Amino acid sequence: MQDNYPLFYQFHFYLFGLIAIVAAITFVTRKSPVAAVLWLVVTMFCLAVEYVMLDAQFIGVIQILVYAGAIMVVFLFVIMLLNLGHPSEIADARGLGMKLLAGFLGLAMLAEVGILSKTGLPSGKYAVPAGFADRQFAKYGVVGAVAKPLYQDYALAFELTSVLLLVAIAGAVVVGRRREENAS
Fold first, then answer.
1. pLDDT, tens digit, 9 for 90 and up, residues 151-176
2. What is the C-alpha to C-alpha distance for residues 31 and 116, in angstroms, rounded to an integer?
3. Other C-beta atoms lying within 10 Å of the C-beta of residue 6
4. What digits encode the pLDDT tens for the residues 23-78?
5. Are the CB atoms for 38 and 152 separated by under 8 Å?
């Protein structure tokens, strides 16, 4: 069973990467800004899972708290404040096929959580060695222990997330101005 873990992690790494790409494409192609923001939250969640699988748990949690939490709430607040979304446009999964697919994916993820809760997480290659955090804090300091992997090892993913947020803000402004011009 221990030999299946690298394949298990590799499969899920690519699975969540694919889900992130599909959700990002869906985010860009939505007409409703509210639905677009919700798809961006899915993208941010998948990126957080990728960070966790790369042993950057702190960055994964920050990804969810800051980006998927706070920034998306601000986006939704601005969209609702500008009245850019219509309630009938919010539901993206309108057809029966989409609802069945969403239900199947939800059950599959629930089954994975059940399997992990029974078998536990692997130890060995993917476990953090004892005293690792203490050595990192002693070597780089508290801020450096977080900043070094963030700005060196995971700099590309961090910058891509920043660019994605910039594009989302620009898209929200363009959609807001277009609807404002049509209303006048």
1. 888 888 888 888 888 888 788 777 77
2. 38
3. 12
4. 999 988 887 777 888 888 899 999 999 888 887 788 888 888 888 777 777 777 77
5. no
Q: Are 76 and 37 in contact (CB under 8 A)?
A: yes
To the question of pTM greater than 0.70 for the whole model, the response is no
- Specify whether the CB–CB gap between 34 and 132 falls below 8 A: no
> CA-CA distance, 168 to 24, in Å (whole number)?
10
- Tell me how far apart the alpha carbons of residues 40 and 108 are, in angstroms, rounded to a whole number: 21
Burial class of residue 104 in the structure, from the number of CB atoms within 10 Å of its CB (0-12 exposed, 13-18 middle, 19+ buried): exposed
Do 157 and 50 touch, CB atoms closer than 8 A?
yes
Report residue 9 CA to chain centroid gap. Answer: 17
